[in-house]
Write a structure and sequence with these properties.
It is a single chain. By secondary structure, this protein is α+β, with helices and mostly antiparallel strands. The protein is built from seven helices and seven strands, in the order H-E-E-E-H-E-E-H-H-E-E-H-H-H. Helix 1 crosses helix 7 (221-234).
């Protein structure tokens, strides 16, 4: 994570939110959090606001039960974040979106698999959390309880992405910048796979390509962050 002060960390959360909105990955109901680098038992997530309204002053501290002592309203899906941080000590950032090109893979039987080097971080196939397995067919499909979100974390396992059946996407990573990078290229991979399935037989990445390409591409995270940040500046969304 690095030697962040909290203001710097909060600034990156806000910029990340702006990038994800501007690049069409996050919608009105997305949210991104980061673990406190000075306290592994806490994480930061904005109060319950539309993403485009979030500033550094809107960031709240939560414990790993998903609770805060701040009396401002909290996202109902904050337990997605808390249960993943609890289950995965290595994870430093969690993102929940309804990433448009990825969304169809939340409700079809075709698995989401990487098709180019930029998707190697996905592993050989992206897992899907199926809420019906334990909760039946009359749920709200939401991640609004610790129990459901503990199941989401279990489905994620050691991977970098998990899909929530008929709902959305959860990305995780070692930093805010890494998660933004992964979210962008997950969207690109999903769009590419959908197009490929329509025009021919898809040749997916091999296990060896997943491992080797993942190491190469994973070193390019800052280039992506710098590019997307500059795009925000060009339209006046970032000073």
């Amino acid at each position: 994570m690095g030697n962040y002060t909290h203001p710097k960390l909060f600034e990156e959360l806000v910029i990340a939110t702006k990038i994800l909105l501007h690049e069409g990955i996050m919608d009105t109901f997305g949210h991104i959090s980061v673990r406190d680098p000075l306290d592994a038992e806490s994480f930061f997530l904005a109060e319950k606001l539309a993403p485009s309204m979030i500033t550094k002053d809107d960031i709240l501290r939560f414990n790993l039960d998903g609770e805060t002592t701040d009396n401002r309203p909290s996202y109902l899906e904050r337990y997605i974040h808390s249960e993943i941080y609890k289950a995965r000590p290595d994870v430093q950032c969690v993102l929940h979106t309804h990433s448009p090109a990825v969304l169809p893979y939340c409700f079809v039987d075709t698995p989401l698999r990487p098709v180019t080097h930029m998707g190697a971080f996905m592993g050989e196939s992206v897992p899907v959390y199926e809420i019906r397995d334990k909760r039946g067919e009359e749920t709200d499909l939401f991640g609004g309880s610790r129990e459901v979100c503990a199941d989401i974390a279990e489905s994620l396992g050691k991977q970098t992405v998990v899909l929530m059946a008929r709902h959305g996407v959860v990305n995780v990573g070692n930093s805010i910048r890494e998660v933004v990078f992964r979210a962008f290229y997950l969207e690109q991979e999903a769009a590419a796979l959908t197009a490929g399935l329509q025009i021919g037989t898809v040749k997916y990445l091999s296990p060896g390509e997943v491992t080797t390409a993942g190491k190469l591409v994973g070193a390019q995270i800052d280039r992506g962050w710098n590019h997307w940040s500059q795009r925000l500046r060009e339209v006046g969304l970032l000073s």
